[in-house]
TrEMBL record:
The keyword Hydrolase applies. InterPro entries: Amdntrnsf_FN0238. GO terms for molecular function: hydrolase activity. This is Citrulline utilization hydrolase CtlX. Keywords: Hydrolase. PANTHER family: AMIDINOTRANSFERASE.
Length: 314
């Protein structure tokens, strides 16, 4: 068994949705999102079933790699079409800390679940829960590790400003959790701000995948690249097509044989051989097929909430 990594958690939370469909409340600012639920109830049921099966298969693949996966079912009683993306409403941090986040879409606010927090408290050492969700009433949002990509080693919170990433909330988070905010503006292929930083950026322990060309300010773009390189990481620049295939929406996890990089099969297929070679030197590339889930505008990283907490002794 390899030593645990501060950057790459070896345990995660995933949500298996039973009434999944692309969320109409998030479609306006998420250009990665596709279509609606279909024209018939049967089409909607087929979509939900496919998403549920994709989460089950992905969780099984992660478990085979030696990652502990806590799977919770969401039967959709509260109309939570995006519940498959739990990393937006909570995050966990070394030292026993949990953060709860203010969510932009009203129906996403219903995704917060006390049973998940209770499980974390029962199985891991939790000292406190800092709840920012009340800022929703002030129109201030910060959607967790979707809005921020955290360098846990250098304590930097890389953040693409958007409707879902407000600087005021970011400053509060960084003060409480001892991160330095590094913000930048972006534009995707449609000229819109990228809705979540984690669709264009992945920070692993020894490398980073970044859609540098989406950062609009040249000086800021150079600073992001410089800061990542100064941390000792190899920076792999992703182009617009790779970003659209969710190659940036990946997460490094601690497996039984060492680091694993979980990424959409679509994203893996778009990597160049040179990029694959760099990743292979530091982590096992683990492709996960989640095409139905990706219709909602997120992929593998969005589906995984890493647990950066110490286990309770049995």
């Amino acid at each position: 068994m390899h030593a645990p990594s501060l950057q790459a958690p070896s345990a995660v939370v995933m949500i298996r949705p039973h009434r999944f469909h692309p969320n109409p409340e998030t479609a306006q600012d998420n250009t990665f999102q596709q279509g609606g639920v279909g024209h018939t109830a049967r089409a909607g049921l087929a979509l939900a079933s496919a998403a549920r099966d994709e989460v089950s298969a992905a969780a099984a693949r992660l478990q085979e790699a030696g990652i502990e996966v806590h799977v919770f079912d969401d039967h959709g009683e509260r109309d939570t079409p995006d519940s498959v993306f739990p990393n937006n409403w909570f995050s966990t941090h070394s030292g026993g800390h949990i953060a709860l986040y203010p969510m932009c879409a009203p129906n996403r606010r219903r995704e917060r679940r006390s049973d998940i927090i209770d499980m974390l408290k029962a199985n891991y050492r939790v000292q406190d829960v800092i709840d920012y969700s009340g800022l929703e009433y002030d129109g201030l949002f910060l959607e967790g590790t979707g809005a921020m990509v955290l360098d846990h080693l250098q304590r930097v919170a890389y953040t693409a400003l958007s409707n879902r990433a407000n600087e005021v909330v970011l400053e509060r988070f960084c003060t409480h959790f001892n991160f330095e905010p590094l913000v930048f503006r972006t534009a995707d292929g449609a000229g819109q701000a990228v809705y979540h930083t984690n669709v264009m950026m992945c920070i692993a322990s020894r490398f980073a995948l970044v859609g540098l060309e989406l950062i609009t300010d040249a000086a800021r773009r150079a600073e992001v690249k410089r800061r990542l390189e100064e941390s000792g990481r190899t920076v792999l620049a992703l182009d617009q097509g790779q970003i659209e295939a969710f190659a940036g929406n990946a997460i490094e996890l601690g497996g039984k044989n060492g680091p694993v990089l979980a990424m959409s099969s679509r994203g893996v297929a778009r990597l160049s051989s040179a990029q694959r070679d760099v990743i292979a030197r530091h982590a096992e590339l683990l492709p996960l097929s989640v095409p139905t889930v990706e219709m909602a505008g997120g992929s593998v990283r969005c589906m995984i909430a890493g647990i950066h907490l110490a286990r309770r002794s049995s």
